[in-house]
């Protein structure tokens, strides 16, 4: 049996970090907004006649063979994949090939998209019949175990559902709502630029997490600003409007970069200045910052000028489109 699976990465628009439990509870359960993009994480599973597990991560350039599921190590560069295999416990050996089009540490949810893609494939292979919401719970808990700090949930929902969406963690459950945006038009307004330096998102998020629990006043103030910005942006985007998007996008970034040292880097600031000189309306870091990607909101007429300026400064502009589709499975 062969199963092919893929899931999109995402650009986060506002409200990141507040998708970490229980942080959202302290800020009136605000929404986190993001949109899926066509830089996919892809997985191919092929059953074997023996019990061996042969795993190849093409983007990381790692290939490993294990005699059986009982011989999987605790500590390994492919730990996320290994822990998912241990959870689902397939009854046969497997050849597993993974590839993510997002650069490692880019801040656009590559590991989470891979997590959902592999979850979906193993769920289908083993006949476990976990529901979509349960796939998110499995993905979150296993990734938390791998990175050793709490994981947010927004990336899993973008990978699972696709499209532009609002994700709101409530007291009773998590609610998602599609945002009625023209994704082709939205794509023309954005430029995604990789700094060339990966980030460790868990480090920044964990510092913010601790500061909230420790009741650091400034951290609470900045997160309230992000929460209020997210609520205002959600109301606007639910009307299909981008009228005040640049101002809200910028306000989110101004609050976010004050949350912890190192969220903004000199490379990011250089790229932001270069983009704005050529007409970018606003910009912010992708994910938790400290490296990875910067995303720019632009006037479509000035998009090419912004791209040229970023490349001149050594940025790696990543071509992409916003997409409607989420997790996709093909069985052969």
Q: Your description of this structure?
A:
The protein is α+β, with helices and mostly antiparallel strands and 332 residues long. It has two domains: 187 residues, Ribosomal Protein S5, domain 2 (2-Layer Sandwich), CATH 3.30.230; 135 residues, 2-Layer Sandwich (Alpha-Beta Plaits), CATH 3.30.70. It is 38% helix and 24% strand. The chain is built from ten helices and twelve strands. The strands form two sheets. Strands 1, 2, 3, 4, 5, 6, 7 and 12 form an eight-stranded mixed β-sheet that branches. Helix 2 crosses helix 3 and helix 9 packs antiparallel against helix 10.
Q: TL;DR of this structure?
A:
By secondary structure, the protein is of the alpha+beta class. Helices cover 38% and strands 24% of the residues. The strands form 2 sheets. Strands 1, 2, 3, 4, 5, 6, 7 and 12 form an 8-stranded mixed β-sheet that branches. A 4-stranded antiparallel β-sheet has the order 9-10-8-11.
SSE blueprint and pairings:
Blueprint: E1 2-14, E2 31-47, E3 53-57, E4 62-66, H1 79-88, E5 94-100, H2 110-126, H3 132-147, H4 154-161, E6 164-169, E7 174-178, H5 183-188, E8 190-194, H6 201-213, H7 217-237, H8 245-256, H9 266-277, E9 280-285, E10 293-298, H10 303-312, E11 316-317, E12 328-331
């Amino acid at each position: 049996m062969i199963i092919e699976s893929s899931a999109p990465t995402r650009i986060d628009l506002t409200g990141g970090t507040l998708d970490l439990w229980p942080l959202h509870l302290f800020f009136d359960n605000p929404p986190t907004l993001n949109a899926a993009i066509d830089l996919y994480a892809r997985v191919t599973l092929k059953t074997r006649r023996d019990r061996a597990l042969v795993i190849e991560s093409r983007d990381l350039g790692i290939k490993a063979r294990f005699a059986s599921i009982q011989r999987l190590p605790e500590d390994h560069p492919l730990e996320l994949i290994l822990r998912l295999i241990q959870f689902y416990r397939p009854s046969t050996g497997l050849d597993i090939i993974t590839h993510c089009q997002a650069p490692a540490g880019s801040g656009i949810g590559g590991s989470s998209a891979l997590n959902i893609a592999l979850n979906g494939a193993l769920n289908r292979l083993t006949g476990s019949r976990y529901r979509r919401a349960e796939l998110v719970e499995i993905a979150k808990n296993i990734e938390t175990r791998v990175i050793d700090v709490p994981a947010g949930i927004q990336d899993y929902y973008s990978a699972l559902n696709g499209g532009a969406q609002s994700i709101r963690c409530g007291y009773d459950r998590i609610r998602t709502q599609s945002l009625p945006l023209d994704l082709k038009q939205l794509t023309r307004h954005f430029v995604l630029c990789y700094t060339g330096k990966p980030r460790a998102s868990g480090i920044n998020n964990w510092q913010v997490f601790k500061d909230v629990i420790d009741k650091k006043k400034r951290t609470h103030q900045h997160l309230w600003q992000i929460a209020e910005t997210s609520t205002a942006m959600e109301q606007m985007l639910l009307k299909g409007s981008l009228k005040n998007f640049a101002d809200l996008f910028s306000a989110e970034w101004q609050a976010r970069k004050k949350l912890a040292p190192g969220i903004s880097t000199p490379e990011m600031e250089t790229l932001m200045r270069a983009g704005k000189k050529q007409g970018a309306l606003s910009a912010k870091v992708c994910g938790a910052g400290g490296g990875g990607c910067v995303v720019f909101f632009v006037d479509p007429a000035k998009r090419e000028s912004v791209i040229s300026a970023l490349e001149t400064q050594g940025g790696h502009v990543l071509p992409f489109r916003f997409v409607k589709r989420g997790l996709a499975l093909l069985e052969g």
